[in-house]
Specification:
The protein is mostly beta strands and 446 residues long. It has one helix and 35 strands.
Length: 446
């Protein structure tokens, strides 16, 4: 962690949730939970206790020694007849992202690439009437020595300036991430791989020493341990951020590629100097033999360099037998989609957002690719914000569809199909790719 004072930690189970913070449990110690979707592209503003902040994150490009402007909008979304004005405090704050993707922020998280000292805002304390929205203007002034990517957060705290007291204090807060890119030159991503671990499946628990492993009545390991697990750390050694993607390939006897495992992380965007932990799981049984597992990471579709690392392991005859007998590889790996179709009635000139929740109920990591077949739907009406991502076992994610209808759209029905291709971790010889089709219909009224 970053320190003991002014520290906030955010590790959401789902984006857009409302968060509260507990402070003062230990005298003079303050810890608050706050919302900062710094590595996500979301369509809707976040709401905490009736206060919405938009956008949740933005990038500001500035040249060394120059300045650039940005804005953040704070809204009191409560409109009920008995709603009261809400006071908020706005400040610029440091944050950092942990190896596992958790966000920590506060004064104790100050770091060498902090943009806090460069950012000025035209608000401190505000009082918003019910339904009132206020724009906050900010200015970034980059020093001549700046080079690469820097970051900070505009934090909005419900209520006035915080008073640290004995006992328990409840603090509601939400924030917008400000990523500053100092455009001095073209940057080549510098990614490397730290630790790489392969954990073969195990089928016996070892908490009952009186029972021989494999014997009748021996305690069985949980299903998530009856799979091959891969874990790797990706390090950003450069001055520019990037979005990492990784895959593990399994080679039998060091020659023939027999399986692939997509790797996933809570946040794929890796800031300069940060490390991100990627994992993958494969239930498909491997035959006995000597294996080399090679992981390959890149920094996005325009990447110049890739990072590689390899580790060897063995699968003995007994492990291969029990793995095959477990039958986990034969369990269905079907993706769950909700809803199974999109239908919107809109008017010309309208902008709206729809989402598809994609869930992975299997024990295998899945890589998903999304694209839109427009059919009679005009190109440009729908933008998909997440087109390539990976889900681990039991994970889910929303695919956001932004719909922008032009002013000259003619009345009628327009159809398309959202195609989601899911590639599960497994043997190359098996058919591990599924294509899901979600009908899309937009009806333009008169």
């Amino acid at each position: 962690m970053c320190g003991k004072r002014a520290l906030s930690v955010y590790q959401p189970s789902r984006l857009g949730s409302r968060l509260k913070s507990l402070a003062g449990v230990v005298p003079r110690f303050w810890a608050g939970l706050a919302l900062l979707a710094a590595a996500q592209l979301l369509a809707a503003p976040d709401v905490a206790a009736g206060i919405a902040v938009s956008p949740l994150q933005q990038e500001v490009t500035v040249r060394p020694g120059r300045e650039a402007q940005f804005s953040v909008r704070v809204t009191n979304v409560k409109r009920a007849a008995d709603a009261r004005p809400q006071s908020v405090t706005v400040e610029v704050m440091d944050f950092s992202v942990s190896r596992d993707g958790g966000i920590s922020f506060g004064e104790a998280c100050k770091h060498s690439r902090s943009a806090v000292g460069w950012i000025g805002i035209d608000a401190g304390e505000l009082v918003l009437r019910p339904g009132e929205s206020r724009g906050i203007k900010g200015t970034v002034r980059a020093p001549f020595s700046a080079d690469g990517d820097y970051w900070a957060a505009v934090m909005v705290t419900i209520g006035g300036p915080e008073k640290r007291q004995e006992g328990v204090n409840v603090v509601l807060r939400t924030a917008s991430g400000i990523f500053v890119h100092v455009a001095r030159r073209n940057y080549v991503e510098r990614l490397s791989i730290g630790s790489l671990q392969v954990t073969p499946p195990r089928f016996d628990r070892h908490d009952n020493p009186g029972v021989e492993p494999g014997a009748e009545g021996a305690p069985v390991a949980p299903q998530n341990e009856q799979v091959l697990n891969v874990a790797a750390d990706v390090i950003n050694e450069g001055v520019g951020k990037f979005i990492a993607s990784g895959t593990a390939a399994l080679y039998l006897d060091g020659r023939r590629c027999v399986a692939r495992i997509p790797l996933h992380a809570h946040r794929r965007r890796i800031l300069p100097g940060h490390v991100r932990h990627f994992v993958g799981a494969m239930p498909a049984a491997l035959p006995a033999g000597k294996y080399a597992l090679r992981v390959v990471f890149d920094s996005g579709p325009q990447c110049v360099r890739k990072a590689f690392k390899e580790v060897e392991f063995d699968v003995n005859a007994e492990l291969a037998r029990r793995w095959e007998e477990s039958g986990l590889a034969r369990a269905p790996a079907e993706l769950h989609l909700e809803p199974e179709q999109l239908s919107k009635s809109l008017t010309a000139g309208r902008f709206t957002v729809a989402s598809i929740v994609v869930s992975n109920p299997s024990l295998a990591s899945m890589r998903l690719r999304c694209r839109l077949d427009t059919e009679t739907l005009p190109a440009g009406w729908i933008e998909i914000t997440s087109t390539d991502f990976t889900l681990g076992p039991g994970m889910r994610r929303s695919v956001i569809c932004r719909m922008a209808i032009p002013d000259n759209a003619q009345p009628g029905d327009y159809d398309g199909t959202l195609l989601i291709e899911a590639e599960s971790a497994g043997l190359i010889s098996a058919n591990s790719v599924e294509v899901h089709r979600i009908p899309v219909r937009i009806t333009i009224g008169r």
